[in-house]
Amino acid sequence: MKKTLEEIKSSSLSAIEKAADLGALEALRVAYLGKKGSLTSVLKQMGSLSAEERPIIGQLANQVRAAIEEAIAAKTAELSEKLLEQKLKNEKLDVTIPGKPIKIGRRHPMSVILDEVVDIFTGMGFSVAEGPEVELSEYNFTKLNHSADHPAREWQDTFYFTEDSSVLLRTQTSPVQIHVMEIQKPPIRVISPGRVYRKDEVDATHSPMFHQVEGLVVDKGITMGDLKGTLNTLVKRLYGPEARTRFRPHHFPFTEPSCEVDVQCFECRGAGCRVCKGEGWIEILGAGMVHPKVLEGCGIDTSVYSGFAFGVGLERLTMRRFNISDMRLLFENDMRFLSQF
Ligand code: DAH
Fold first, then answer.
1. 85-110: per-residue pLDDT in tens?
2. Bond preceding residue 249 cis, omega within 30 of 0
3. What are the residue ranges of helices labelled H in the chain?
């Protein structure tokens, strides 16, 4: 039996050494060490040995098994390495082929302008407030001094959530003025950018959702002069030192006096052209001195404090700045358009 084991050892080791590939090696492993392998069948005969022989042969058998396993492991490593080398030789890698370009996004033109507007106002000491888009009529209209029958409240203009018209999608950012004044004491200097909603059909200048930036200043001795200075600063910072403004009387329920602010058309410098539809001026915002009723409704003493407010259309500011003629372009997410800014 000892002889048989020695034969197995030498024949297996030389066969393993000669194995050409991993498949052949596996076949050898099965042939020697497998359930029906030659070493296994020798071990099965151990029962016929005498008690003295058994441990000696047992020990030898274990040595043979270990030697075969070791040889297989060494050969496996050797063959795998050869295989890898071969593969690397066959695979030609052209490192000069250009990679796939990674598309990096960029800021939307509205975000560019919003960031500038926020920058300009924070530079003048304003902070930024947020208000809800789902709003109470109380805040969107009543506390802003809209009468019960004001036409802006109509169902055909406003998205209401409830039959009793008490909850709606805000139609303007002005209700944020109320939220701010209800929790903050003067002096107040805030802007509040955000989305607003109106039942408008989509066309080149209308969208049922658009953006406004509200502004509110309340302090001692605030006048229309402060309003003009602030808004002129905004316009000149946005459009350049030559940009000219015009303050026109207007009406808003929550300001008195009220005005609309126009910028002179950059195209024709006031003469009238296609861009400004012959007007020479383009309207960009509404503003005014905060109505005493609005201040008092928020518990602010109008014998001590006064304030001004304004609401700018962010789409308009953006379209003016980049000469965009159709508002729909701002919402369509067409990369060919957006990648120009
Ligand atoms: N909320 C007005 C609108 O949507 C704009 C506006 C006008 C806001 C005058 C103001 C203001 O704060 O004082 O048309």
1. 988 888 888 888 898 998 888 899 99
2. no
3. 2-18, 22-33, 38-44, 53-90, 109-123, 137-140, 175-183, 224-239, 292-297, 314-322, 335-338
Give the chain's radius of gyration (CA, Å). 42
- β-pairing, 188-197 vs 281-290, is unpaired
**Does residue 153 sit in helix, strand or coil?**
helix
Please state whether the predicted TM-score (pTM) of the whole model is above 0.85.
no
Q: How far is CA 245 from CA 177, 236, 237, 307, 318, in A?
A: 25, 9, 12, 21, 17
Å from CA of 259 to ligand 1 middle: 9
Q: Whose CA is nearest to atom 3 of ligand 1?
A: 172
Report d(CA 9, CA 15) in Å as an integer.
10
Q: Which atom of ligand 1 is nearest to the CA of 173?
A: 1
pLDDT tens string 4-55: 888 888 888 888 888 888 888 888 888 888 888 888 888 788 888 888 888 8
Q: Which residues, 6+ apart, have CB-to-CB distance to 124 below 8 Å?
A: 189, 230, 233
Spell out a b/e string for 256-266, using b for 16 or more CB atoms within 10 Å of the CB, else e: eebbbbbbbbb
